[in-house]
Amino acid sequence: MIYLDNAATTPVRTEALQAAWPFLTNEFGNPSSTHELGGRASTALDSAR
To answer: Are 20 and 45 in contact (CB under 8 A)?
Structure first.
């Protein structure tokens, strides 16, 4: 199927979903927080940039 309605939403690339999945399911840290989960989220965010 060819998806042509990108004005409504955009499909997520598989690579992006795989990279984000751990943080959507297990790693709930706020990257601005100083605790361990926040530190891991901050490191992942910096690495993604």
So the answer is: no
CB atoms inside a 10 Å sphere around CB 39: 13
* Length reported for the chain: 49
Q: How far apart are CA 5 and CA 32, in angstroms?
A: 35
Find out whether 27 and 39 touch, Cβ atoms under 8 Å: no
Residue with tokens 């993604």: 48
Q: Where are the domains of the chain?
A: 14-48
Pull the structure tokens for residue 43. Answer: 């490191």
Q: Can you read off the two tokens belonging to residue 23? A: 């943080």
Q: Please state whether the predicted TM-score (pTM) of the whole model is above 0.85.
A: no
Residue 15 has pLDDT above 90, yes or no: yes
